[in-house]
Each structure stands twice: as C-alpha cells, then as structure tokens.
Amino acid sequence: MLAPWPDRALRGGERFESETSGAAGSMVLTCEVCGRPLDGAPSKVTMDGAVLSVCRRCAGRGKPYQPPPSPQRGFGLAPRPVRAIKEPELEVDPQCGPMVKQAREKLGLTQEQLGRAINVKASVVSHVESGKMKPDIALARTLARYLKVDLLVPSAELEP
Ligand SMILES: [Zn+2]
Question: Under 8 Å CB-to-CB from 30, ≥6 apart: which residues?
Fold first, then answer.
C-alpha cells in the first residue's frame, strides 16, 4: 500500500498528525504474537499450524513460513472442464447426403470424378450421397471445401 500523502503534506504539523493517526493506525501491522507494531516487514512464521505475521523478536518462536510451491494452479488434480470451454463442436450434418449430391451435380461431376478429386472411392461418394454412410468429420470437411457447401453443424444443434 502506497502512502496517499505527498511528502510535503507530512510536514504539515500537529493537526495533520492527529487527523491521520486514526486511519494510519488501522493500517499499522502489529505482531500477532506480542502485539507490538512492526517496524519493518513482518516475518511470517508458522506456529501451531497457523501462519502468523510477527515481529523479528517473535520470529524465532515459530518455524519460518514456507509458502506452498505451487498452489493448485496448473498442477491441480481436479479435472478441468476442457470440453466446456472449447468452441462448439461440429458434427456432420445428417442431411449431408442430398447436399453432396446436389453440389456435385451442380459442378457437373460424376461420383467417380468427385471421388478422384478428393481421393476417395466413387463408392464412398455414392454411399455418402445415398445416406448409407455418414462421412467422418475429415471427409465431410474435404467434401465441404471442394463442393463449397456447409456440411458441418454445431453438435449442440443436433442434441436436444
Ligand atoms: Zn512480537
């Protein structure tokens, strides 16, 4: 905590002193063992399991306080809800079959040509279009990119 008063205010005299003594008094740290005001940085010690800020004279009566190396940040065992903070997951649109077919026909491609273009068998294209096969995300992405259609939907929209 920084003293809010500029230096010259401190030379203000008695009146100033008495005005501030109340506020300053509550901010003065005292030794938690003997109650004396601390004239420097308090020493932190553990005594009977409690962490106390004590004066130098009392510091020798406890064990030096060692802050825990890393308080549950990053190394915590509690599972973090990773999925909850991820961007919405995408799923292959269940209606992608007709969309693929339509987009392919619009481009004037046969199933063989489309299959060759995206490196899958024509039968895969056929199965996807007929709905016999649901493409995985990777295939759907490839199809979507090639056909310039949107075949992925956020999975939240599919689940009630
Ligand atoms: Zn003390």
Answer: 36, 37, 38
pLDDT, one tens digit per residue, over 87-139 is 668 899 988 999 999 999 999 999 999 999 999 999 999 999 999 999 999 99
Which domains does the chain carry?
Answer: 7-64 (no CATH), 90-158 (1.10.260.40)
Tell me how far the alpha carbon of residue 149 lies from the centroid of ligand 1, in angstroms: 75
Residue 132 · residue 124 · CB < 8 Å: no
* Residue 26: both structure tokens together: 């509550």
CA 22 / ligand 1 centre spacing (Å): 22
Question: Can you give the pTM of this predicted structure?
Answer: 0.44
Q: How many residues does the chain have?
A: 160
